[in-house]
Amino acid sequence: MNLKPYRPNVAAVILSSEYPKKKRIFLGERSDLTTIWQFPQGGIDKGESPREALLRELEEEIGTNKVEILAEYPEWIAYEYPDDVQKKRRPYYGQTQRYFLVRLKKDAKIDLDTKHPEFSDYRFVKVKHLLKGLTHFKKPIYKKVIAYFKEEGYL
After folding, report:
1. What does the pLDDT read at residue 92?
2. What is the C-alpha to C-alpha distance for residues 112 and 103, in angstroms, rounded to an integer?
3. What is the pTM for the complete model shown?
4. Domain presence at residue 135
């Protein structure tokens, strides 16, 4: 049996502070790959809970962790990196992720000028437009997660 190592990871589906009046979701354009837009995400450090990792990653990637956690996807979702990405991410073959649905608090200020900038730009998009601009390998996972949060009545 071949057990490939997967990196434990968290990801955030961030709703604007205008939620539930307006249902708009944050997408960040990666600073290392132009035209690739994604949710904030990052690894879980040793001894850290997924919720602790979520708050730390948000602070590191968008400059704030002032969020209210609304929901959590009920299971871990694993995916493998495409070959070109996997070569750069050794020893991991992919990631196993925990997704959270969060709302920015009214006083939250997004600041992409962080210590190690992950995003060069961001936008909030309507739920119905979210998947249209995504072209990368995570699109099927995003589709699954968004469908779940819709079914649960959040989106």
Report:
1. 85
2. 18
3. 0.93
4. yes
Gyration radius of the chain over CA positions: 15
Place of tokens 């959270």: 100
> What distance in Å separates the CA atoms of residue 12 and residue 64, rounded to the nearest whole number?
13
Rounded CA gap, 67 and 122, in Å?
Answer: 17
- Please tell me the predicted confidence (pLDDT) of residue 149: 98
**What is the rounded distance in angstroms from the CA atom of residue 72 to the CA atom of residue 74?**
6
Residue 33: DSSP 8-state: S
Can you give the CATH number for the domain in which 100 is found? 3.90.79.10
Q: Where are the alpha helices (DSSP H) in the chain?
A: 50-62, 83-88, 139-151
Termini Cα distance of the chain: 40
Domain count, the chain: 1
